[in-house]
Write a structure and sequence with these properties.
This protein is α/β, with parallel strands linked by helices. It has one domain: Rossmann fold (3-Layer(aba) Sandwich). Helix content is 33%, strand content 30%.
Length: 237
């Protein structure tokens, strides 16, 4: 195994039982991602991209083969070890934001740090740093219902980034946003990728997201159909 790889997947298959038979969502996947990549799993609904993202995020396990994430084999982790990996090293961004509506922006972003038992003074600095990254320091006392969709997604990015994870997994992060907000969100993530060297892995079929990717991994019927590197000039965005 390549110890320099953030993600290393070898001969991975994932099947789900369907009555007396099984549905194969992923078949013979072989991939390796390095530190600092800005990469997307691209494909239509049913192509397997979200299933693969869930396995990388230790939310699911392979049926066969292996997925190594930060030098840990996801399929061999106990439930507690998988939770620890997510808590310490992974950030998640979803299309539905998943914010706690009764809590303030500050409290939503602070939540991952409470799980890590970080002291109050350090937590406050880390939260304010994260909100500064996404341009929301003026919204610390606001609650999600008072924010726009774009602002909610920026809070979700701040929450994912606040502990400075090694890897951020984003599942259709712009699906509920208009074009202007989508580009703002994506430019924010590109900036964080460049400044913090955080690895980003997307699952998407959104052309706006695809335009920002530096590596595009196309999935079709559960298999890698194409894997290409692209030089993206972000100044044009």
């Amino acid at each position: 195994m390549d110890n320099n790889a953030i993600i290393q997947i070898r001969e991975l298959t994932k099947s789900f039982p369907m009555g007396k038979s099984a549905f194969t969502a992923l078949s013979d996947i072989n991939l390796s991602l390095g530190k600092g990549e800005f990469t997307g799993l691209i494909g239509p609904s049913g192509s397997g991209k979200t299933t693969l993202l869930n396995i990388v995020g230790s939310l699911d396990t392979p049926t066969s083969g292996e997925a190594w994430v930060l030098n840990q084999s996801v399929g061999r982790l106990t439930a507690r070890e998988a939770a620890q990996l997510r808590k310490e090293s992974l950030g998640f961004i979803f299309q539905s934001y998943n914010l706690l509506v009764v809590h303030t922006v500050f409290e939503n972003v602070e939540f991952p740090l409470l799980l890590l038992k970080i002291g109050a003074a350090e937590r406050r600095k880390m939260v304010m740093d994260a909100l500064e990254w996404v341009g929301l320091t003026d919204k610390v006392r606001s609650k999600p219902p008072q924010l726009s969709g774009g602002e909610c997604q920026r809070v979700a990015i701040a929450r994912a980034m606040v502990k400075r994870p090694s890897l951020v997994l984003a599942d259709e992060p712009t699906a509920n946003l208009d074009a202007a907000n989508s580009h703002h969100i994506l430019q924010t993530m590109v900036k964080l990728n460049e400044e913090l060297k955080t690895t980003f892995l997307f699952a998407t079929h959104d052309e706006k997201v695809i335009g920002y990717l530096r590596r595009k991994i196309y999935l079709l019927d559960g298999k890698v159909a194409q894997d290409e590197w692209v030089k993206v000039d972000q100044t044009e965005k």
